[in-house]
Amino acid sequence: MLILTCPCCGIAADETELSPGGEAHLTRHGPGSGDTDFEDYLFNRENARGVHFERWRHAHGCGKWFLAARDTVTMQVFGTYPAQTTEPPQEIRDRITKARPGWRWRDFGAAE
Ligand SMILES: [Zn+2]
Predict the structure, then answer these.
(1) CATH assignment of the domain containing 9
(2) What GO molecular-function term can you cite, just one (predicted)?
(3) Which residues of 78-111 are buried (b: 16+ CB within 10 A; e: fewer)?
(4) What does the pLDDT read at residue 7?
(5) Quick one: which of 48, 60, 50, 53 has its CA closest to 19?
(6) Which terminal residue of the chain, N or C, has fewer Cβ atoms less than 10 Å from its own Cβ?
(7) Which domain holds residue 43?
(8) The whole model's pTM is what?
């Protein structure tokens, strides 16, 4: 069972208390961007096998959104952090690199 610690209220919540919100750290391009950029934002996802960053909502708890880094194969959780964060905190990236040598931020999906 997937257990994520909500960074907003500090409760270790199992997946029945959470609602998934899809991939985290998507880039929404502004006015003047092309249709391809908007299409990427709307429809294209990494669907990574391995390290993945996701949005979750503590639906049956504090109700707030947060982000989580986990491995989609082993279900190992590397950490959770506030939804307002534009990229994973260095501490979480270090944890991932320690567990998956060779992994790099924005290169996820390529390394397992
Ligand atoms: Zn919470």
Answers:
(1) 3.30.2270.10
(2) sarcosine oxidase activity
(3) bbbbebeeeebeeebbebbbeebeebeeeebeee
(4) 97
(5) 60
(6) N
(7) 3-25+36-99
(8) 0.87
Q: Which residues contact 81 (CB under 8 A, 6 or more apart)?
A: 7, 66, 67, 68, 69, 88, 89, 92
Tokens 């270090």 appear where? 94
Tell me the CA–centroid distance for residue 47 and ligand 1, in Å. Answer: 25
Is 31 inside any structural domain?
no
Please give the tally of structural domains in the chain: 1
Q: What is the pLDDT of residues 8-40, one digit of tens each?
A: 999 999 999 999 999 999 988 889 999 999 999
Name the residue with tokens 């960053």: 53
Q: Which residues surround ligand 1, an ion (CB under 5 A)?
A: 6, 8-9, 58, 61-62
Contacts of 29 (CB under 8 A, 6+ apart): 37, 38, 41
The answer to whether position 82 is within a domain reads yes
- Ligand 1 centre to CA of 30 (Å) is 31
Would you say residue 40 lies in a domain? yes
Cα distance from N-terminal residue to C-terminal residue, the chain: 21
Please give the mean pLDDT across all residues of the chain. Answer: 92
